[in-house]
Specification:
alpha/beta, single chain, 3 domains, Lysozyme, 3-stranded antiparallel beta sheet
Amino acid sequence: MVVIGKYYIKIFIFFLFLLLLSLWTDGCKNSKGQKKRSTEVIHRDWPEIRSRGKLVALTDFNSTDYFIYRGEPMGYQYELLKALSQYLNIDLEIKVENDLDKSFHMLREGDCDIIAINLTITKERKNLIRFTEPIGQTRQVLVQRKPAGWRKMTLDQINKHLIRNPIDLAGKTVYVQKHSSFVERLRHLSDEIGDTIHIIQVDEEVETLIRLVSKGDIDYTIADENVARVNQTYYSILDVSTPVSFPQNLAWGVRKEGSQQLLSVVNNWITKFKKSLDYALIYNKYFKNPKSKVMVKSDYFVLGNGRISPYDDLIKQYSDSLDWDWLILASMIYQESRFNPNVTSWAGAKGLMQIMPSLIERYHVKNPYSPRENIQVGVKYLHWLEEFFSERIQNRDTMVRFVLAAYNTGLGHVLDARSLARKYGEDPSSWEAVSNYLQALSNKKYFLDPVVKYGYCRGDEPVNYVEQIMDRYFHYKNIVRE
């Protein structure tokens, strides 16, 4: 019995040791901040954002809010955010998320400062976020398909095939985006008509569901009227004339706690901006523009086919030899030529990558306007520059910026800027330092300095060139998902 008792005591001590070890490990993790508490309140109000120098905004990508067309980022929410950042005199970083539940989570966890989406103001959502002043109004409408042969029918004949009274949704199946305000509205509508509406919540966002209705894959969905009418211009078979709600306010959202000052400055801007001509022009551009149908069907509309340009395959092929993300090269080619293979600059640069006469001669180019030959030669030169800087710049992202600057303004001017940085005790491998001295090369004090070998340079141009390419690249990464 004594032996058995000692055995159980040893087992008890062993498991007690494991329990204490587990508690100690969890304590270490928490003390090192490896696991953020879900109940932690994020405080990052306007003073902190202004000090950081950057507003992080979250939006969604679709044919109105944020997309790429002819190589450029565009969209209703995107242009509003640009106007806001200019008003606040602060940089803008855009993040993308089309799942509304994830968007609210990202805001709550501090991954963004503001949600810039047309959010319907509801009591339920007021428990999650603080709404800004309304940026617009709309109704929710039923999206349904016109009957076969509708072009040969009278309006009365068409209406007989369509739901015109929401009460007729009884027994019907309606697909809506998960966590959207459309779910709540349909539930209320089901109670109001005293019958069942079969609500199917799916991950697909609104415009995807609209497209599925147009194809006949589903019969009904709900959308905000302004978005529905834009999409009706793409798919003429759609009918969007049956409202299922009263007019509702649309707004942006900030964190419920710790964002009072941010909310105040954003509301001040919204109140003023909504009265401006600029706001009217932006709204009409995306919601009342008859050219939007042509734009969406264009080869340059990324959401339509996932392509940035007709030359994506070539860009991908040759970017591999650089070991670059092809989207950087695509952004660079847009910067050079707007994807026009036949353009010639005043300096004689030709084609998609604007290769100069010296390169045409060096690489024995037969046809500089050939997209394949032009990209091939441009990438060869980029590769040469990359080999030069790879021995001098350790950070790869920084090296790419040096390569782009040298491609634009010439290697000599970049080397001069590095020499100036070195002379004044700054890091010649830092893009921040070198870009400052590139800009200084338009000042006589610097371009006449003995360490400068290549003289005057209009340094703002290569610096802006690099920053615009990289900024556009981040937009491409937001939207082009392979």
